Amino acid sequence: MNGLGIMWLRQIKKYWRSRSRMIGSLGQPLLFLIALGFGFAPIYQKAGGGNYMQFLAPGVIAMSILFTAMFAGIEVIWDRQFGFLKETLVAPVSRTEIMLGRTLGGATVATLQGIVVFFLCLFFGFRPASIIHLFFAFIFMFLIATLFTALGTAVASQMEDMQAFPIIMNFLIMPLFFLSGALFPLEGLPTIIYYLTRLNPLSYGVDGLRGTLTGLTSFGLFSDLLILTTITLLITFIGAYSFSKIEI
Amino acid sequence: MKQNSSETLAISVKNLTKKFKEFVAVDNISFNVQQGEIFAFLGPNGAGKTTTIKMLTTLLHPTIGTLHVNNFDPIHQQEDARKSFGIVFQDPSLDDELTAYENMEFHAVLYHIPKKLRAERIQYLLNFVGLWDRKKDFVKTFSGGMKRRLEIARGLVHHPKILFLDEPTLGLDPQTRNHHWTYIKELNKNEKMTIFLTTHYMEEAQKIADKVAIIDHGKLLTQGSVKELLHNTQTKTLEEAFLKLTGNSIREEHSSAKERMRTANKIWGRK
C-alpha cells in the first residue's frame, strides 16, 4: 500500500465506523422522496409527465452523492482544525498523491451512499428500466462523487476555518442541487434558468444517472459522459493544485 | 571552536530570513546543530521559533537564506529531507477517529516502511512510550499526555536522524513532563538521535540541552552551551539569562522599536 492507498483506506474506515452518520444522512433523501415524491406525483401525472417517483429518484440519488461528496472534500478544513493535515503534509509523499487519495476515498464513500439511497428509492416504488444499465449508473455515480469531492477539496483548501462552512452550503451546494434538473425536467425553462442549468455540471450527472436508470435523458448519455468526465478531470486538477498551495 | 565540517552537521542554517508580506518573522539567523546534539531553540511567544521549524521541516519556504537538514536542502530535496527527520508538532496532529495502532500504521505507510517491518517497529515503539496496551483504543479516548507520547512514538517510526519537538511538554503535568524528557534523553543517548526542541520551560532546557539558541523578534540573540551563556550573561540559571536577554515585558503583538533597541543594547553592551 502507498500514500494514495492509505488516504483512501482512512476515508473508508471512518465511513464504516460512523454508521450512525450514514443512517442520519438518509434523512434528507427520505424527506425529498416522501414530501416531493408523493406530493408532486398527482400534478406531475396530470401534466403528462408520467410517474414522478421514476423521475425524482435519480435526482435524489444524485443529491445524496453531491452532499456526501462535498462534505468529504470539505474534511480538509476539519483536518486542518484538528491538526492531522500537518502529518500528511510533512510526509515524504507528494501532495498530489495525498489529494488524489483523499478524493478517491471521499468519492468511494459518496458512491456507497448513493447506492444506499438507490435501495431506499426501490423501497418507495422506484424501478430501474434495465438491470444491465445499472452498471453504467454506478459509473455516473462515481463520476459525480469524484467531481464534487474534488470541488469540495479545492474550496476547502482555500479556507482557514469552519466559519466559511455555511457559505459553501448556501452559495454552492444548494444552487448546484436546485438548478440541476434533479427535481424538474430541463425542457421548456425560462432563458436564465435554461442557461444556468446548462452551466451546472451536476445537470449532466443527474441526466446521465436518469438516462441509465430510467432511459430518459435530455442531453444523451454520450454527451453526459463526455462532459462529466471532462469537468471531473478539470476540477480534480484544480483541486490538486489548490491543495498543493496549502500553507499551515 | 568545534570543527564545522558539514559531515557532522545535522542542521545548518545560513542567513535565514522569512517575511510574511511586510512582517519579518525570522530575520537573518544562522546556526549549526551538530549530529547527536540536543539543541534547545528558545524564545518568547511569537519570536519566530515555529516559523523556523516550519522552514526546516519543508512546510514553509524561506524568503532568503540557505538551510540544510541532514545535508539535504528542504526546498530542492524535499522528499529526502522529509524521510530524514521526525517531528512532533506544537498542536496535536493525530487522527482522533483512528486507533493508536492505526495512526502508527498510517505513518509507516506514508513513510514507505516495508510491510514486513511495520508491525515489529510499531510494537517496539508503542512499548517504548508505554501505549502497547492501548493500541486498539481510539485516540479520542486518550489524555493529553498519552496523545503526546503517541506522537513521539509516531515520529520515530521511520528511524529519523533528527527529531524536531515543538513544545513537547506544553500543558502536561510534571510527572508526564519528566517521563517525556527521559524518553528524549534515551533516544539521544541510545540511538544517537539529534534532538531539536523548543520549550518555554527553562529549567527543563537547562537540564537537557547541550546547546541553546535564543531568538527574539526573529533575531538570534545568542547561541552556545548553557555554561557559556550563563557565563556571558552573568546569571545563575537559564531562566535568568533568558529574561535578561529578552526583557520582562509580556509579548502580545510585535513589540515596540524601543524594546528592540533595549535588547540590542544589552547584547552589544555585553560584547
Structural account:
The complex is a heterodimer of chains A (248) and B (271). Chain A has 248 residues and is mostly helical. Chain A has one domain. Helix content of chain A is 77%, strand content 0%. Chain A has helices spanning 3-17, 19-24, 27-39, 41-46, 52-81, 84-89, 95-123, 134-157, 165-178, 191-199, 201-214, 221-244. In chain A, helix 8 (134-157) runs antiparallel to helix 11 and helix 8 runs parallel beside helix 12. Chain B is an alpha/beta fold and 271 residues long. Chain B is 40% helix and 23% strand. Mean pLDDT of chain B is 87; it is low at 254-258. Chain A binds chain B through residues 1-3, 5-6, 10, 13-14, 17-18, 82-93, 247-248, and chain B through 54, 57-60, 78-80, 82-83, 87, 89, 91-98, 102, 105-107, 109-112, 115, 154.
Overall form of chain B: globular
* Distance linking N and C termini of chain B: 18 Å
Number of beta-strand segments of chain B = 9
Q: How many structural domains are formed by the residues of chain B?
A: 1
